[in-house]
């Protein structure tokens, strides 16, 4: 992973922006773009480590000398995640905050010892899987502590157990998706979890952040896949999940899922796996507009069985993606569906989609809407999405290099609120970005949907301007306020971290915040775990709601 | 509802046991049975109410005079749930513990006021929906308080909102299933949640106990259906669920679900609803034995789409049900499937089942198992289950009247552990019940299954013997210990209440118990809510796990 960008260093993003694309960008964004060269690594120095000799010695006793590293490069590689703000800081040579050391426990038991020592020594502990957080989740914030260490899970990479009768796999938290798929694939299984970050993101990170993959229609959200978890805390082990389903009180798995390292560090996750699919096929349609597409997605989300992938781009994203792929952009909104499974499962998925789209045609005709079919096949777009679907973060680096700021944000709500929310967030972004420094392109797609609602995933591209960090902070605040005011969740699958924390009190209310704070006080009495993330401040100020 | 038995008083259970059935029971159970007439209601007196005049006056100010009742009959009707132990006590004329008064709030706001008063006056509060708990969940235990009131939700019965775009309905907690289905059915929708208790059980109770209905294959568990909830606590309102899915931290809906009135009282639940099905059809098969049936259920649980209903009876239950229905019992295990939806959805469900059963045949043949088809249609059994599926609780009253003790218990685990768990629990029940007082019939079915595991639902019939309550307590303890020792959950859908509480520390561990206790201290600082239920004692004793 690049220290100041995304992904494989061999993959040169500069080639992704042609001269003609750059000219088109200048025209569209209404600004002349200038190169923004990053500060080279050899000119960057992290602050001195504050880890005491006492703590270092105690930790080395548990971890060995290879298990505690505080060289500059290791610390820089763990100085945060991959939000655009993170990259802007690093490109400017700023690698603060930086962990005072990086720890590499090789087992759950070693991690329990590490947490015991850090608890005694009052050292803040930040878990780190693939380091792909885009919300500040892995930023090494010391909070009220004098020292902060990052715990890198990369030495915990085993497939611990595969139960072929139950179709479950127990996986170490440090496994990355390609490693999981290789281990499972050799036995004839797949996890089927493919978020855009899949090359680097880890099993523990997926659980800690409630990740959602691009094939969520068929494989479910990551939290849907989890049968049980094991989490190390300063008080010992919490390992909820005694059976696939239970009525034995509140589901404590759901407290561990989404806890973002604030309650403990997840070391093992037992997940449902599936046999490798026999068949895989894609299809694409064009609908006249986003609004029609939303209704199509709604019907498809209620299909049984559902397609494995269902994704709708709004008119702007449809136009931009066709342009980037060198195709003639057709008017309308692009709907991409993917089908996976046995041959007959694929047949049934397609039949269910056909039925859903027939319902859409019937309701469109009944409401005096479009005449003729609401959807038309667009075979030329079928391959574009599958070829380019993991390119986003690489493209962001290329755009930053030519002075274009890009970032994404996402939310979810019920179907009835989805279009008002979409317009409110778009309007907020345009209002905060369009001006003397240029304008913004705001694209949106729906890639995760449910019988009762769906997510919105927005991508923004705008000139960097004089102060790109301040420019984006304003836009993000405006978009987040619009989400909160229009009934959306502050995050559907990026998690909370530092960036969404100011909106958590609105999201879960004062008693919800107090409940999380009470959990944290129980599992992490000294407050060493991932300080200032997720859980809003002020549990002492709770008043009756 | 009968005060000392199940259901509609017009439904006379005595007619359910013919002379020939009784003779067969005596022969099978190895004991001569004798009539056990219950103490009539007019000979039963509850203890005097301990509610102070101060508290009564304060509560009447909020609720009006109709909203607080402490007449004998109302108190007796709320003196507990419907476990066999509950019925045995009431048939013996014992109606303790009895609530000191029964409160009937008409709104969330009234309930908040009630909780404020009870918090000030240190009055224990037990929520009551349909009163169908079989685990002591609604037993009016005062715990450390001097007084206990039951809060009956039966004045909260509105369909508050139906969102037809999102297919969600916001329902008052006090609505019973037939009322819900009537309200939704008039608008073209169904909830599709039909546990055996459906005639009386309420929406709030389903949420508080993580109920599972007989059509869980198609409609999901109740907790799957929930989009948001509103819960009144002594500290105010907790209302989690801002969108169908979210990554904004731990899912607080899952803390409210299954909380059994210990953290607050649920007043409103927004659930996913479905259009009324166009088509409904059943099918039944016989498999050679339970073990083959388990493999069939496993394949069916992974079908896409799944059938709406899938239920497998073991050899004993298959034999007994055929006998009760007056059919010739065929050897083997009965598999009943139900299909619901549009015509084409039903077609796809059937196709998916056919594919699953073909996989079973292939794997059976490959492992040198049964030759010929592993499953054969049994059309004669198709209707039996649908006709009799809600009769169990009525039949229990009839059996108690002739001196036969019947009770049910349930658990769940992964597919790989299911048969070992089945044998362990059956063996424990037989070991504790078979002896000089007769023997036990132990029947089992699987009615809720998942890709990674399934539930086991056991029904026991045995002579009452000299002390039926002690006899069942021994058997229940032995079965629960066997469940805990063999990796099962202590309850898959009956909840915890008082009866499963001794096994909760094994179920969730010391840190899990401490986490629930911390949540309770936050939401219910005085500990007035449903004392001595669900949450195990001793959070002060937590040691590192």
UniProtKB/TrEMBL annotation, chains A, B:
Gene3D superfamilies: 3.30.300.330, 3.30.465.10, 3.30.70.3450, Uridine Diphospho-n-acetylenolpyruvylglucosamine Reductase, domain 2 (3.30.43.10), Vanillyl-alcohol Oxidase, Chain A, domain 4 (1.10.45.10). It comes from the Bacteria. Residues 95-276 form the FAD-binding PCMH-type domain. The keyword Iron-sulfur does not apply. Keywords: FAD, Flavoprotein, Oxidoreductase. InterPro entries: Alkyl-DHAP_Synthase (IPR025650), FAD-bd_oxidored_4_C (IPR004113), FAD-bd_PCMH (IPR016166), FAD-bd_PCMH-like_sf (IPR036318), FAD-bd_PCMH_sub1 (IPR016167), FAD-bd_PCMH_sub2 (IPR016169), FAD-linked_Oxase-like_C (IPR016164), Oxid_FAD_bind_N (IPR006094). Belongs to the FAD-binding oxidoreductase/transferase type 4 family. PANTHER family: ALKYLDIHYDROXYACETONEPHOSPHATE SYNTHASE, PEROXISOMAL (PTHR46568:SF1). This is FAD-binding oxidoreductase.
């Amino acid at each position: 992973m690049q220290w100041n960008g995304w992904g494989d260093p061999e993959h040169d993003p500069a080639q992704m922006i042609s001269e003609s694309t750059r000219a088109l960008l200048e025209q569209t964004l209404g600004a002349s773009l200038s190169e923004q060269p990053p500060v080279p690594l050899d000119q960057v120095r992290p602050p001195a480590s504050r880890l005491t000799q006492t703590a270092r010695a105690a930790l080395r006793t548990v971890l060995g000398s290879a298990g505690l590293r505080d060289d500059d490069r290791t610390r820089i590689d763990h100085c945060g995640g991959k939000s655009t703000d993170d990259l802007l800081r690093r490109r400017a040579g700023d690698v603060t905050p930086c962990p005072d050391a990086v720890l590499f426990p090789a087992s759950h038991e070693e991690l329990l010892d590490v947490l015991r020592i850090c608890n005694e020594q009052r050292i803040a502990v930040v878990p780190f899987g693939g380091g792909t957080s885009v919300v500040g989740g892995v930023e090494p914030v010391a909070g009220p502590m004098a020292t902060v260490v990052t715990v890198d899970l990369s030495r915990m990479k085993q497939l611990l157990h595969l139960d072929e009768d139950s179709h479950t796999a127990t996986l170490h938290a440090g496994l990355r998706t390609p490693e999981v798929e290789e281990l499972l694939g050799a036995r004839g299984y797949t996890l089927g979890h493919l978020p855009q970050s899949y090359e680097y993101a880890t099993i523990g990170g997926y659980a800690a952040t409630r990740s959602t993959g691009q094939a969520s229609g068929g494989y479910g959200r990551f939290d849907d896949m989890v049968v049980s978890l094991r989490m190390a805390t300063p008080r010992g082990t919490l390992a909820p999940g005694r059976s696939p389903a239970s009525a034995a009180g509140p589901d404590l798995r759901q407290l561990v899922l989404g806890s973002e390292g604030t309650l403990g560090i997840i070391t093992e996750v037992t997940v449902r796996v599936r046999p490798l699919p026999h068949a895989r096929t894609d299809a694409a349609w064009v609908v006249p507009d986003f609004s029609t597409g939303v209704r199509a997605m709604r019907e498809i989300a209620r299909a049984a069985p559902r397609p494995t992938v269902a994704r709708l781009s709004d008119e702007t994203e449809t136009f931009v993606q066709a342009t980037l792929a060198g195709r003639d952009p057709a008017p309308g909104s692009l709907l991409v569906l993917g089908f996976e499974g046995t041959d007959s499962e694929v047949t049934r998925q397609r039949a269910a989609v056909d039925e859903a789209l027939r319902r859409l045609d019937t309701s469109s005709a009944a409401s005096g809407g479009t005449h003729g079919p609401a959807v038309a096949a667009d075979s030329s777009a079928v391959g574009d999405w599958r070829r380019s679907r993991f390119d986003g973060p690489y493209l962001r680096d290329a755009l930053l290099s030519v002075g274009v700021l890009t970032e994404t944000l996402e939310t979810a709500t019920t179907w009835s609120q989805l279009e008002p929310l979409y317009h409110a967030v778009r309007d907020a972004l345009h209002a905060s970005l369009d001006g003397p420094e240029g304008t913004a392109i705001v694209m949106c797609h729906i890639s995760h949907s449910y019988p009762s609602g769906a997510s919105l995933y927005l991508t923004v591209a705008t000139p960097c301007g004089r102060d790109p960090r301040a420019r984006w902070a304003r836009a993000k605040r405006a978009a987040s306020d619009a989400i909160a005011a229009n009934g959306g969740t502050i995050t559907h699958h990026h998690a909370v971290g530092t960036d969404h924390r100011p909106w958590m009190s609105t999201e879960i209310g004062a008693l919800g915040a107090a409940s999380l704070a009470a959990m944290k006080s129980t599992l992490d009495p000294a407050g060493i775990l991932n300080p200032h993330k997720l859980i809003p401040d002020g549990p002492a100020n709770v008043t009756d709601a």
